[in-house]
């Protein structure tokens, strides 16, 4: 049998040469479990005469990935094989890759269809020596296989269906897209991203530096009006946001319930469910970023709505299909007054003064509000998330429900909150406060723990911080628990603060969490049968 090399030459397939290539990528891995010879034997079984070296590397990576259940180091080795293959198939010089992306011509219509913006390209080229030399391609080998394949599938820019970017190219594109001409800040951000100190949300990784620099993750909308025009205008907004990789929350309580009278047609409303099925199909059709990941629409309803029980059934796997909309996410938006009535066992109410009704009607009729990014610009909310809290507990050898774990958890989040508020105050000196800062709780020295009537630990000087931030902060919201499944895939930590034993990635690939396996092997609790199960 022979293999076709990348330059077109034919070469005889040699067992030892395949083994040697895999062996070179095994540095730092556990030699007791990782066996290059075993991988080569499985690869040879899948080869045919005339196979290309690209196909050979792809097969070797996929076979190695299937051995991950034996030991997590196989996932690292599989990624190294795949990354090595990508490096051989792509240009190395960052500025040249960005030029290729800008100069892209759509082969179907012959039109210039740049994938990076002219503004960003000019910055790339004006600073190409500095940017090119700052990139460290060895960091591409720090991903595991499932994280790398997630990047390859959804994040790395492609030309005619073929990946053109390397992971480090993407991170530098994102960094320059954020910081523009501030090259020092861009390189600092690049290093923090590539060393995995933090990661940006998916819309930023998708869009930074491109012609559609929409970097926000989340958009909150209220239904424009209880009318055909209002429903479909809001639907259009959702579609446009999803197109640019944004996730959406929509308040739908204003939509009239099933059986309600419709004056314009002298008929009766079909209620929420048929409308939500339309939104469900839009979320399926207009996926985020053009088939990069499914659309994410979360629908919010208050408990007084007549259709509340039908709303709560929409996600179920059983029942009539026309009464289900399973691709949406649902939230019950519960007013404080409702819960107070529950606590006192009193009747709920949904009354409002006539004066307030007139005021609301006038505002709705005469006031035009710019939606989309207006809220983000006014309030400047950010969401500093968290990954791998359970990892920290395991590394510290703290049982998840122990007092030590609870104390560490508290101090971690206190530190994030304190440092973020301090930085927000410092940034306000440059960017000013957010528009709605005056009169906000933080402007009065009221922090989150005050609202929840909690006392922080003595780890940080909160009194000094309150005095400092009473002058200015630049962001209204600091921290949140974000939806972060793809970050989990890229970094393979436990999602957010959650604890799982088995992670299910795309195509039903199961990954047993590596620290569980390491601990089991260390304690001699992991047999061959248990590794395969």
Structure, explained:
47% of the residues lie in helices and 8% in strands. The chain has 533 residues and is α/β, with parallel strands linked by helices. It has three domains: 171 residues, no CATH class; 153 residues, no CATH class; 128 residues, no CATH class. The protein has a four-stranded parallel β-sheet with strand order 6-7-10-11. Helix 8 packs across helix 22 and helix 19 runs parallel beside helix 21. The radius of gyration is 27 Å and the shape is globular.
Nutshell version of this structure?
With 533 residues, the protein is α/β, with parallel strands linked by helices.
Q: How do the helices and strands line up, and which of them pair or pack?
A:
Blueprint: E1 2-4, E2 10-12, H1 15-24, H2 36-45, E3 51-52, H3 53-66, H4 73-89, H5 94-102, H6 118-126, H7 128-134, H8 145-155, E4 158-159, E5 162-163, H9 167-179, H10 183-194, H11 202-207, E6 218-222, H12 228-243, E7 247-251, E8 261-262, E9 267-268, H13 272-285, E10 297-301, H14 308-313, E11 329-332, H15 336-343, H16 354-366, H17 374-379, H18 389-395, H19 403-431, H20 448-451, H21 462-469, H22 485-491, E12 502-505, E13 509-512, H23 514-522, H24 528-532
Parallel strand pairs: 1-3, 6-7, 7-10, 10-11
Antiparallel strand pairs: 1-2, 4-5, 8-9, 12-13
């Amino acid at each position: 049998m022979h293999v076709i090399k990348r330059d077109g030459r034919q070469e005889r397939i040699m067992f030892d040469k395949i083994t040697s290539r895999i062996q070179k990528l095994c540095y730092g891995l556990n030699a007791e479990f990782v066996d290059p010879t075993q991988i080569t034997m499985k690869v040879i079984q899948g080869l045919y005469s005339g196979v290309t070296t690209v196909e050979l590397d792809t097969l070797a990576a996929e076979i190695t990935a299937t051995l991950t259940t034996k030991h997590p180091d196989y996932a690292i080795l599989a990624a190294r094989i795949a990354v090595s293959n990508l490096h051989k198939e792509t240009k190395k010089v960052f500025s040249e890759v960005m030029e290729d992306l800008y100069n892209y011509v759509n082969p179907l219509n012959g039109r210039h269809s740049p994938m990076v913006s002219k503004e960003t390209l000019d910055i790339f080229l004006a600073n190409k020596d500095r940017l090119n030399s700052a990139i460290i391609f060895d960091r591409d080998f720090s991903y595991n296989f499932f994280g790398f394949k997630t990047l390859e599938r959804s994040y790395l820019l492609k030309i005619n269906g073929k990946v053109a970017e390397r992971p480090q190219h993407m991170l530098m594109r994102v960094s320059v897209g954020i910081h523009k001409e501030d090259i020092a800040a861009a390189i600092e951000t690049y290093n923090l991203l590539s060393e995995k100190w933090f990661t940006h949300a998916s819309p930023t990784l998708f869009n930074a530096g491109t012609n559609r620099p929409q970097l926000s993750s989340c958009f909150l909308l209220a239904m424009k009006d209880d009318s055909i025009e209002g429903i479909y205008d809001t639907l259009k907004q959702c579609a446009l946001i999803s197109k640019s990789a944004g996730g959406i929350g929509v308040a739908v309580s204003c939509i009239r319930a099933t059986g309600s009278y419709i004056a314009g047609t002298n008929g009766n409303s079909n209620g929420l469910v048929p409308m939500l099925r339309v939104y469900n199909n839009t979320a399926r059709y207009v996926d985020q970023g053009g088939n990069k990941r499914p659309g994410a629409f979360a629908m919010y309803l208050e408990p007084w709505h007549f259709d509340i029980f039908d709303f709560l059934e929409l996600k179920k796997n059983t029942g009539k299909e026309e009464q289900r909309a399973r691709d949406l996410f649902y939230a019950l938006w519960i007013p404080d007054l409702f819960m107070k009535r529950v606590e006192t066992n009193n009747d709920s109410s949904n009354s409002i003064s006539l004066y307030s009704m007139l005021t609301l009607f006038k505002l709705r009729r005469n006031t035009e509000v710019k939606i989309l990014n207006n809220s983000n610009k006014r309030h400047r909310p950010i969401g500093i998330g968290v990954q791998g809290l359970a990892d920290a507990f395991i590394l510290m050898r703290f049982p998840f429900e122990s007092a030590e774990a609870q104390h560490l958890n508290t101090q971690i989040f206190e530190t994030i909150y304190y440092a973020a508020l301090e930085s927000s105050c410092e940034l306000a000196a440059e960017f000013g406060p957010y528009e709605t800062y005056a009169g906000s709780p933080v402007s009065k020295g009221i922090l989150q723990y005050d609202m929840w009537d909690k006392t922080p630990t003595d780890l940080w000087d909160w009194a000094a911080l309150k005095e400092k931030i009473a002058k200015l902060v630049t962001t209204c919201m600091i921290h949140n628990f974000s939806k972060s499944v793809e970050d989990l895939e890229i970094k393979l930590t436990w999602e957010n603060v959650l604890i799982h034993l088995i992670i299910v990635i795309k195509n039903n690939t199961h990954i047993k969490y590596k620290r569980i396996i390491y601990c089991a092997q260390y304690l001699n609790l992991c047999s061959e049968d248990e590794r395969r199960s």
